[in-house]
Amino acid sequence: MNGDASLEQLRREGRVVIVGASLAGLRAAETLREKGFAGSLTMIGDEPYEPYDRPPLSKQVLLGMAGADRTALPRRRALDATWRLGVPATGLDMAAGRVRLADGDEVPYDRLLIATGVRARPWPHAAEAELDGVFVLRTRDDGAALARRLAERPKRVLVIGAGFTGSEIASACRERGLAVTVAERAAAPLVGALGGVVGAVAAELQREHGVDLRCGVMVTALEGDATGRVRAAHLSDGSSVETDVVIVSLGATRNTEWLAGSGLGAGPRGIACDAGCRAFDIRGIVTDDIYVAGDVARSPHALFGYQFLSLEHWGNAVSQAETAAHNMLSASSDRLPHLWMPAFWSSQFGVNIKSVGVPTLGTEIVVSQGSLADRRFVGVYGYQGRVIGAVAFDHARWLPFYQELIETTVPFPPPFPTVDRRPEGRRPVDADFPDPSVPTHGPTVTLSGYSPADRRMTFTPAH
Amino acid sequence: MRLVVDLNRCQGYAQCAFLAPDVFAMHGEEGLLYTPEADEAQREKLAQAAAACPVQAILVDAVDPPAEAVSGER
Fold first, then answer.
1. Is A318 in a helix, a strand, or coil?
2. Element (H, E) at A171
3. With CB atoms 3.0 to 4.6 Å apart as the test, which of A169, A181, A406, A449 could cross-link to A460 if both were Cys?
4. Where is pLDDT greater, at A427 or A204?
């Protein structure tokens, strides 16, 4: 049994390299050791910090409850790894099995896991992005810098983009008593992820909490003063906002540039991999030694028509990392598919928002419990006659039930009477997602077509 | 001690907020906010909170914060 012997050798003395030292990279490394991997393990990360948790950066850290330098992730076990932190990977030689680093080193691997994640999309005008007072929020350094500035009590904060991160930032600022303007290109906050029906509720929440919410506008220019500090933003409706802190929350860009020319199926939509987390090359042939996990991956999901899904979700990073690590050490018949049910949460304006499934696939929504007017409800999304996703506002305990409906492909509208029979619960309405070909701050789930080698940015709607 | 709560699992039962109120607090009706790095003095309460969580969503460091991961040196 040649294959068994070589797997045994891999487990005993193989070299595993993980590029990306955040949540997915850490959990993959721990899983490898849990499964008995005794070879060498190298963790490569572009940030000079050990793995830390990002969700608190837009919540606890901005509220002043925790320092940005105090969100390091707890460890499940000791890793005995070699850490190369603060050194980005700059290239991949698939034939030789080596990762090139920015400092010129090359690290050889027998199995490679790519978990390089995403980065905040910067403000497109470089000179304006350089103004003092203009921020993005993705990293620990971003969080520390922004928290410091908010503690100086700016007169007004402008948030550009009302996706989840932008909305959470606005919420934290209001909670600290800061004046906040939010500028959103779409008709309402969160529409990219949850559609216009739920977006309208999010808009009411923001306004009720004192946010100066401007929808249907774009920020056309940021203006600095003589000392290079931002002082105003100009909007597409001709108005302007005087502000001393601007936070650009325009979604994320996948960290795949370092793979350009490597032959791996990597592009602006992420890195395509099969359901077992193995990366495709640009010919659409699956590799057997390169695996992908976390935000940078796009993988087919059986429950959602085998479309490639990119999930910028905390839970996905953990689950995909565990599956990838298992599969790296397993014979093909022992490998597991990554079939994690998409799920995410957000906390804003005192409301706990949670979701399961893929709302962005939905064309219709029905309120099955609670009421939009109370901001306490469950919305169920339907796609081609089946339940495809659900969102809960302060109704989290019900979500496992809806998850089961999605997993068992229950018809839509769901075949049970709505629990509390509010008028709006009785009939499905258009979920009102924006045209997906228009770039927005972004849904946290992106359907990215079928072709593993697809490097285009055009969207192929399934409906 | 570092900790993280899997907020996909969390359903807002608030057991942790009763058992370790210096680390966990409810925020709104069912949202949870927590301090990602707790003082050593909280160790006992934190262990109780993690054990009492009905959905087992709380992960606390299983090992002491490793020295291995703090520098870019090989």
1. helix
2. helix A164-175
3. A449
4. A204
pLDDT tens track for A16-32: 999 999 999 999 999 99
Residue A216's CB: how many other CB atoms inside 10 A? 12
- Widest pairwise Cα distance in chain A: 73
Mutation target to probe the B interface, by most B beta carbons within 10 A, among A75, A82, A87, A355 is A75
Between chain A and chain B, the number of residue pairs with CB atoms below 8 A apart is 109
Interface touch B61/A75, C-beta < 8 Å: yes
**Residue A157 in contact with residue A180, Cβ under 8 Å?**
yes
The Cα of B32 is separated from the nearest Cα of chain A by a number of Å equal to 8
Tens of pLDDT along A138-154? Answer: 999 999 999 999 999 99
Q: Provide the CB-side half-sphere exposure for A70 (13 A, CA).
A: 14
Q: B67 in contact with A at a CB cutoff of 8 Å?
A: no
* pLDDT exceeds cutoff 60 at A451: no
CA A15 to CA A19: how far, in whole Å?
13
| Residues on chain B touching A87 (C-beta within 8 angstroms) | 72
Calculate mean pLDDT across residues A295-320: 93
Residue B66 pLDDT greater than 80, yes or no:
no
Residues 6+ away with beta carbon under 8 Å from A369: A377, A378, A395, A398, A418, A419, A420, A425
Q: Which whole-number Å values give the CA distances from A400 to A14, A201, A357, B12, B34, in the listed order? A: 40, 23, 11, 14, 23
| pLDDT tens by residue, A271-300 | 999 999 999 999 889 999 999 999 999 999
Distance from CA of B40 to the nearest CA of A (A): 14
Domains and CATH numbers, chain B: 3-67 (3.30.70.20)
Token pair for A134: 């203009």
Q: Which domains does chain A have, with CATH numbers?
A: 2-119+253-334 (3.50.50.60), 125-250 (3.50.50.60), 343-439 (3.30.390.30)
Contacts of A50 in chain B (CB under 8 A): 66, 69-70
**Are A218 and A235 a contacting pair, CB within 8 Å?**
yes
Average predicted confidence (pLDDT) for chain A: 92
Q: Provide the strand spans (E) within A32-78.
A: 40-45
| Integer Cα distance of A280 and A266 in angstroms | 8
